[in-house]
Amino acid sequence: MNWKASLSRALPLLGAAGLLALSAGTLVADDGYHSKYADRFEPLPAIAPIPANNSLTKEKIELGKMLFFEPRISASGVISCATCHNPALGWTDRIPRATGHNGQVGDRNTPTVLNSGFFTAQFWDGREDDLEGQALGPIEADIEMAMSLDDAIARLKEFDQYKEAFAAAYGGEGEEQITPENIAFALASFQRTLNTPNSPFDRYLRGDLNALTEKEKRGMAAFADNGCAACHSGPALTDSSFHAIQVPGSTDLGRYEVTGDEGDKYRFKTPTLRNVAVTYPYFNNGGVESLEEATQIMAREMLGREFDDQTIKDVVAFLHTLTGEMPNITIPALP
Amino acid sequence: MNWKASLSRALPLLGAAGLLALSAGTLVADDGYHSKYADRFEPLPAIAPIPANNSLTKEKIELGKMLFFEPRISASGVISCATCHNPALGWTDRIPRATGHNGQVGDRNTPTVLNSGFFTAQFWDGREDDLEGQALGPIEADIEMAMSLDDAIARLKEFDQYKEAFAAAYGGEGEEQITPENIAFALASFQRTLNTPNSPFDRYLRGDLNALTEKEKRGMAAFADNGCAACHSGPALTDSSFHAIQVPGSTDLGRYEVTGDEGDKYRFKTPTLRNVAVTYPYFNNGGVESLEEATQIMAREMLGREFDDQTIKDVVAFLHTLTGEMPNITIPALP
């Protein structure tokens, strides 16, 4: 097929996009933004990176899903991972601070588990590196599920269906395989599948120039040009690094509580911006409900500048384009 | 088609069933049980009876589903109907007694909402007649969701998506339609769809003689012949009536708390036996975990007889055939 034929086929697809350029023999359409900004971002893959020591298998994912929805590994018997990481609420809870065992309220906002397999630091303070390390924390935390791992394991061992599922995932006798490590590996495997690809932004990055409106594109440009993308980088729009920020109402010392280094005071992990429109409220203390206000605070605190109203509106419109396709999870039938 | 042709077609379907009888011109196969017992039971319809004042519409069902999974109509913001009526756990909680706001433990076992539209009395003590009457109780109960209806309604009114959903379900301006009655009507509509047809028992009643094993059929016969079916009657295997029973560890006065009549002391509504194998633990206080033990207690308490081991095993095998197809519910995306 010659390029004129390609052109005549491609033209109807270009829609509002005006400019056409011929680059290395390929037709590339541009809208005045794509050529300048697309390379500064990364589309989100469907599956998060898989660690060498925890191969991703169907059996582990299925087991991890059961465990994720299992409230009987909490002291009350009614709190599961899915209580705070609620699939109906963007896999978070949409309240300021996590509320767990006996109604106790924690100090920090529940992060969504969506796309968390793309992070190289877990929790607001990065006290764990990966999902395997993160998985057991909330089960044992006194103000979350408040269950000792011994008790959780004893509870799981009562059910043949769990014995079978652990055997299917890890081989051997099921009962022996019900270990803290294997619980963590299964939960991590399941969470590694909870990603939200194909957002309007991803479709745009991949070349669908009509996937974003002009306003959203202006927001993307403002986001990149003002330096937001310095920390909100990579496929999940986080560098998994720690930056000092003090948001209204927070006295939390953040990363300092892990390292004890003065320089880590008030540092928190850059949160992902993927699905940020459906994972309010914002910041480590969940103190801000509106994306407009959160954007203004970030501009002041992190960039030392004041965004005008139009820029705020544009950036917020862009942030809405980061909402991807939610995982299509059927509720498991637990034993 | 003549009956010989019908016969030659039907024969391969009859499987293990031996006897054939010609009744009113139709071929009827029998297995020694069906002709005797099938008429004493009713298969479960796919949809529960719809009251004249609450027509069942797609819009109400969708809205009811949102509300059912909505934790922000609880005081803590993390307890929804689905917390205790957990779809992963047979739409109940599988713990002895309901655990709600701030970890408070109630006096009674959470009944499954599955097939609850077939009941003509709701709650263990029948203090409401129908799902519309039942729906708001747990939202307001101090030890369950602990939310005033005014506060719940104010919360819902914050979301455009709810305004739209109420308008779609009830017409008019969405905000005005967010009323206690309309919340109850939507929740009732959704619950009316949560039924479990096509259990092995239903398939058997409808003529699939291979849907039950010989052991299960013996259990069905024992269940009917010993009088269990006197109260566990109708499509949901409950008469929605009240019968005196005192189970181990319970001091609950039951129906008496509603009526104040001496004769109602220790009376509780006959629970449905649909899905009984997956809705343990049993009785008003959730005091019994095993179906074998529950069956023995029922034989002693209600029938004044002792079942031998084989009868217990047969009846329990039969009770397992009452587990139907679980509703295929996708988790809603809440605003």
Automatic annotation (TrEMBL), chains A, B:
Residue span of the signal peptide, if any? 1-29
Q: What Pfam families does the annotation carry?
A: CCP_MauG, Cytochrom_C
- How is it modified post-translationally? Binds 2 heme groups per subunit.
Chain residues that bind heme c 1: 81, 84-85, 101
Pathway assigned to this chain's UniProt record = One-carbon metabolism; methylamine degradation
Superkingdom: Bacteria
Would you name any one GO CC term?
A: periplasmic space
Q: Which cofactor does it need?
A: heme
Localization, per the record, is: Periplasm
Q: Where does heme c 2 bind?
A: 228, 231-232, 298
Annotated function? Involved in methylamine metabolism. Essential for the maturation of the beta subunit of MADH, presumably via a step in the biosynthesis of tryptophan tryptophylquinone (TTQ), the cofactor of MADH.
Annotated protein name in UniProt: Methylamine utilization protein MauG
* Species this protein is from: Marinospirillum celere
